[in-house]
Amino acid sequence: MVKNRYKYTPRNLKELLVEMKDTSELMVDLAYSAMIYDDEDIAEEVMHLEENMDMLDYQIKMGAILSTRRIEEAEQLLGVLEVAAASEYIANAAMEISKRVLMGISMPDRLKVALRNANETIVKVRLNEESEMVGQKLGDMELDVETGMWLIAIRRNAEWIYAPHSETRLCLGDVLIARGHDEGVPIFFKKATNKVYTPRKVIDYNEPAEFDRSVDLIVEMKNMCELSVGLAYSAILFNNKDIAHEVQVIEQHLDEMKYEVQDLVLEAAASAVEDENLADYKGLLLFSSASERISNAASDIADPVIRGIGVHPIIAMAVRESDEVIIKIEVADCSPIIGKTLKELRLETETGIHVLAIKRENRWVYSVSGKIRIHENDVLIARGSRSGEEALIEMCSCPVNL
Fold first, then answer.
1. Given the DSSP bridges, would you call strands 325-330 and 379-384 parallel, antiparallel or unpaired?
2. Can you give the pLDDT at residue 254?
3. Which of 281, 261, 256, 260 is nearest to 271 (CA)?
4. Which residues lie below 8 Å from residue 59, measured CB to CB, with a gap of 6+?
5. pTM for the full predicted model
């Protein structure tokens, strides 16, 4: 008889779901960071977090089984287990990226630089003697609002601090890993080092056109899979079938994009002059598959909404209480942001909020670009921090006359 390596300890299902959601999203961010910076230490941390995810998955399954007494309860808890399983799938995709880093499978420099210019990017920086952030508490700096960057992890000597909170005080030599809009990177870098940020330049390797096209597709896939996860949690939180169906549409589109990437990479590899570049092509295939897996997991999250299964209240509570909150707000007819474009508002860098979708009259807009103008009575679906949520609510409301 094989002894169970986990020991069941009764825990609140909502707390377990929150931890699984936050951990899986952290793993993806760290995996991207490990890949972009060729950092094996970060990749190792992703592998350690996967062990924790396995334990959480066991705990939530045991808790659900032990708490079910009636068919109606079982149906609702089925949705909880689907969301938990989807978080595990997202974590597995992050683990696959990290495994390849540890195995020495490289990613082309062109892709690494392109990912830094994606809708959401990852930056790693060490605090030096000139940094204004040394000795400060995160709560006093409000980096998400000031820079549009979200601090996801800190490496202090040989230890890691995940999801640092408002009372976390930064120290000289801390290595910060942050996620956010690319426009916020120079601001964040300046605060951390008191130096001007210099973007990494791409060396022209004269790769085949198929290679360049595949890199562009992979960046688009990363943007779309992250959008699908955000929309999936929005569909669950607001029990919205329209948004849930859009998640499925994105999943189908990403499946097609993955096959297109595979075809392009094979064509590029066939015409490659030097065999040493073939490792880069292998990395492209890996990354496209990981993005497609994340999108599949997002579809699983939205699935209970599409099937009309009663969504258990703890799912919505877990989404609201996670590190990154989902926001739904209507723009008042007297709001000062009416008529302005998202680019002019600079929501990502001014509030740390990323708009996922806009409902205008009876139509949803999912391809939200900086050119879109805000109309009165628009309903915004966005994600970000709680302080950013407060800033967005103020922007969408009528001005207060004193």
1. antiparallel
2. 92
3. 281
4. 6, 8, 9, 11, 16
5. 0.83
